[in-house]
Design goal:
Elements lengths: L8 H4 L9 H11 L2 H6 L2 E4 L7 H5 L5 E4 L17 H12 L7 E4 L12 H6 L3 H17 L4 E2 L23 H16 L12 E5 L18 H8 L1 H8 L4 E4 L3 E2 L2 E2 L4 H11 L5 E3 L7 H4 L6 H11 L4 E2 L3 H11 L5 H17 L19 H14 L1 E5 L12 E4 L25 H9 L3 E4 L4 H10 L2 E7 L20 H9 L5 E6 L7 H6 L2 E4 L7 H9 L64 E3 L3 E2 L3 E3 L3 E10 L5 E10 L11 E10 L4 E9 L5 E2 L5 E2 L3 E10 L2 E10 L1 H7 L6
Parallel strand pairs: 1-2, 1-10, 2-3, 3-4, 5-6, 6-9, 12-13, 12-14, 14-15, 15-16, 19-27
Antiparallel strand pairs: 7-8, 11-16, 17-20, 18-20, 20-23, 21-22, 21-26, 24-25, 26-27
The protein binds beta-D-glucopyranose.
The site of beta-D-glucopyranose has 11 residues, from loops.
Amino acid sequence: MTDVTATPPTRQRPWLDATLPVEERIDLLMAEMTLAEKVGQTHQVANINPDDDAGEIASGRISSSLYASGATAGNERDEGVLVGNIDAAQRHAVKGSRLGIPLLFGRDVIHGHRTVAPIPLGIAASFDPDVAEEIGEIAAREAAVDGVAWTFTPMVDISEEPRWGRVAESLGETPVLSGRLAAGLIRGFQGDDPSDPDRLAACAKHFAGYGLAAGGRDYDTVSVGENTLRNLHLRPFRSAVDAGVLSVMAAFNDVDGIPMHAHEHLVREVLKGEWGFDGVVVADWNGIGQIVFQGVAADKREAAALAIRAGVDLDMVSGAYLEHLEELVESGEVDLALVDDAVRRVLRLKFRLGLFERPYAARPGASNAPTPSTRAVALRAAQAAHVLVKNDGVLPLDDDAGKVLLSGPFVDDGDALLGTWVLDGRGEEVVTPEAALRERLGDRVTVADGRFPDVTLMQARAADTSVLLLGEHRSRSGEAQSVVDIGLPPGQLELVRAVAAFGKPLVAVVYTGRPLDLTEVLDLADAVLVVWHPGVEAGTALADILLGDAEPHGRLPMTFPLSTRHIPTSTHQRPTGRLIRADVDHQEGRYVDALTYPRLPFGFGLSYTTVDYGAPVLSSATMTTDGSTTLTVTVTNTGERPCREVVQLYFRDPVAQVTRPLVELTDWALVDLEPGQARVVTFDVQAEQTAYAGRDLTTRVDEGEIVLLTGPDAARLQPVSVTITSPKASSACTGRPEG
Ligand code: BGC
């Protein structure tokens, strides 16, 4: 009897020779594929079942499966998904199909797998790409144990609309912050070599403009011009591509009438053509089918033709490609070259991930439960997500705080502290605020879960200090969780007012997936911490910060408006024909019944000390369009505790071809300062950082004045001007010969 397993695989399947370059392996494999098998590689199903789907897998009609319970999986628990099915399904593909092409398994591993870290908006508050990288790395290692090879993160949609529930999953409102943190996450998930069994492919999503959904209503239409797209919304995607992200997901929305799943210009021409992205463009959940609902295709057949032309390579669950692509090619309506391009990209991803060499789950049966070392990463991230936005001196709590009341719905609800998009984390693995504070304060702490506000009030009266845990349940943010009102949920403000009336120290801790209207809380409480949804180490991080065992150093990655009625308020304000400033005299044409400055500006956050900023100083007040200058600023810790200061650098381009933001974050530095210590912070400023898309949409760096601004947040900045000159003029004036 012939032992088939003993046959040298590369004789029959030369693409299995891992010493060959990937592109050659793709050529060899594609040369063997029928059109039907090619189309199979463009089809992704949900929750593959090795028994029910065995025939389809063996016939090469399935390329990939995601494991998620539905279109809004981020808000639903996922008990129905049996990740253990992965290896069984994979065996059908590898051993049972004609060409043995492995399946690719994806799952939304967004901010941790079992060890859940803060929601992405909380990660963004760290302003620390290393924190993002560490989270990506442990999440990848834990998910790989379950056979997951691909995650659908980071979400880099520019998020300036707090009513939109998905801001929780975003990395904030500015392109440079979002882009750098996305690059950190991508490095963490993919590593240097994504074929490492402990790494996953990442996916930048949702391309593009999703953050502009009208009125913050999820999935709504988007009206935006290409200039704004290029100068703002496309930039973090470009950063993700430059960081080597292996896939990009198309967005549900249209852009100026064209559904993104049918947007040939932005997907095929810009992303794939202009930027040279050679990875996979995956549809969002039923995104191709939804072109029909968007009224731009009569049926799924037409939708399939539009999507493949646009450059969507892999169809997430709609079935449109599987059902219609073969026939569309045979009838000549779709060029085979388009299908080939899509298939090449999918196979490239599978080769890059090493799936042909290692198709099965890494370390099967290994535990992926949180360990002390993964918890240490989650704790650092959770601490870094704490943004102190007010402190009249009540924090950190010391012995004078006396008896402390800890109250509110989050005191012992681990699950609520995990945040949106948690499919594998477990509420019982969360260190709750109650557990952490009881351990540290013993009898000094009393706890009220808030079920009876009257009882809470009596306890607050008896306590010396109240710590109120306020905010939104995790299910009020995330996909399809938009709100018309960014106020606190009903009842919470009443409790704050009633407790504040006792006149005793009051600390408000706000758990949230979005900027909230905190105007009254900021007036009434003595200290306010915004902590997002912090994950498995929520309680430990809170206790560390409240008691001063860690210094708060998070900064707001989104602007907090004065109220819902003041939306939009963000750093993206561009100059109008009338001057706009925060004061009454410079608000012409705005509202007659209110001012429009932010309640809490982008980048804002306090520490337990005070930091003084010197004026910014340039090494040279000119730089060439291809050159740079050095900006230094001295920061001094003038208080009595150490801190980590986020020293921020913004710029303004006063005269450009198009209107440019009043201020735009371009760089920052995390600076540790001991009490009394002064440090000189140096920024290497490249003229290229001022580049923007001009009237003809090409990228340009203008000659002329640029204002550089440094400070602790977007509203407290000191300017210095630099003049950008042409390289020619500068070499002429230094007397160097022109080349
Ligand atoms: C979301 C994506 C997600 C996908 C798969 C969609 O509803 O928009 O962000 O990756 O589902 O779960």
